[in-house]
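Example (one chain per record):
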Amino acid sequence: MRRLFLGGMLCGVLITAAFTYVFAIPANSDYWRWEIWKRGGGAWTIDMKSGHRGWKWSVEPLSDAPPKKPVTVPTSQTKVSTEQL
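Predicted structure:
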């Protein structure tokens, strides 16, 4: 009976530690707060009519991809003459 109790306690402690490592520590990390701030910020929302909760960005989030380089069009190899009329 004692081993069963201690085994259950150990399991509970391990589950709590895993939950804290996965959710609580990143939520309190300044790195993740800065990432959310850089991408425009966000907030938790609650729909009062339906009671649904969710995450909503304050503005459209920025992309991780670097901005695309401008496209340069190569010059034509044919000779084009212009005449003034």
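Caption: The mean pLDDT is 77.
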